Amino acid sequence: MNLATIKTPGVYINEVNAFPNGVVAVATAVPAFIGYTPRADYQGVSYTNVPQRITSFSDFQAFYCLPDPPAPAPPAKQFNPQYYLVKQPGLPAKGDYVQINGAFYSILPDPNTVYYLYNAVKMFYENGGGDAYIVSVGGYGAPSGKPGNPGDPLVNANVQLADLQAGLGLLLNEQEPTMYICPDATLLTSDNNASLMKAMLLQNSIMGTAVSIFDIIGGNAPDPLLWTKDIDTFRANTGNTGLNYGTAYYPFVRSTVVQNTDIDYTNFFGGDITQLTPIINPPASADPSVTAIIANIQNPASGLTVQQNNTALVNASTPYSLIVRRTISNANMMPPSGAMAGVITATDNAIGPWQAPANIGFTDVSNLPINLSATQQGYLNVDAVTGKSINAIRSFNGLGILVWGARTLDGNSLDWKYLSVRRTVIFLEQSCKLAANAYVFQPNTKNTWESVKSMISSFLNSIWKLGGLMGASPADAYSVDCGLGTTMTAEDILLGFMNVTVKVAVTRPAEFIVITFQQQMPTSS
Hints:
The protein is of the alpha/beta class. Helices cover 33% and strands 14% of the residues.
């Protein structure tokens, strides 16, 4: 109450706040997915190139998935890759294949029909995901009408660097996302993928609010001997800016999100059943039941749905059943970034961002394209030349498939080596920054300084009690300074600066546990 404004005799009540403002903890696990979706509209409004917040997979379906047709028609396909069976002269050296009637056929996708975002979002929610942002940069493009070559990297000509960069730029106006994920980035050429990763890290370092989770080109089909070349290329492509805001996981994971109902005969040869028929039902040894089913497929007046015909064909034809199984396995090879976002979210919700998201299993992951050993992981974890660490996903007997790494790309930094440290500091910084907004334009005096110190100290004390900061006492865990002669000079005050210095002892993961055993001489009792 300003006493100078009182002009009339009487009794006045002056209420004084007993408690300072509090710091509200910001959300720590809100991924932003950038990529291509089946559609992007809601109630007649386009959501292409519009960052949209969702809270569940149902929300994602409402905005970005094709609507299901009326029953009895099967649900609409949200992911519709096309595959070709290409006969090989012998056992294929690379890629998936099937052997039918003594002949080898490579199972080769049309690269222009492969997209990852839909299934990445599904894996995010199946692994514990919550709130997220979707930036749809467009719908699916036209198929090329031809397969790729065995062993070649998947490069989708419909996935454009300019589209993904534009989607990334839209996040400059969004403060809530804490992770950037672009599953479709591995479908770019290596050079374009490098440009996108550098742009993501630069934006992360400028904004200071999010980290980027990267997938590695080649992680879907690692060469047993030459897989390190993919790692070398990735390290060269990430540049040197903002490395502590990036993290990468290797290899891809074989998921179970693509089910039997997602792949049928319309996914082969562009839906041309006449090209599939000689392989599964050769004229020289035609099966009458298979011939009848194919006749129904070619006759729309039969009244049978695609799903009914496909089920009948799977049951009647062993070669076709084998082809479908192997193709589903191929379609289930996914970049791990979406699942990792779910793992990080679940870890944050259970404990906090200071808990390393490692030594944790995945949901809906069946196996890996390469089983890395401890020695092989050493090449990923520590790199003396670039210092860029890559987190391994490994399979352990009796334990399953686990995330077995917790580092940022800045593996040589003692400050920012660990992902949990980087994310904890982002969490503390942004929480305190938003709370300090209440003091903008307040008098730059001791009362304000003490209020700010008390507010931030109280917040850090609560984090220390939760285990997010080290130290046997609050004094060991953090300190907050603000005042003339400590953090500010008289000139700072004249210029309108109020400087607050916060020091925190962030917990770090026990990455290397060394147990020493030594024999000792027997002693008398």
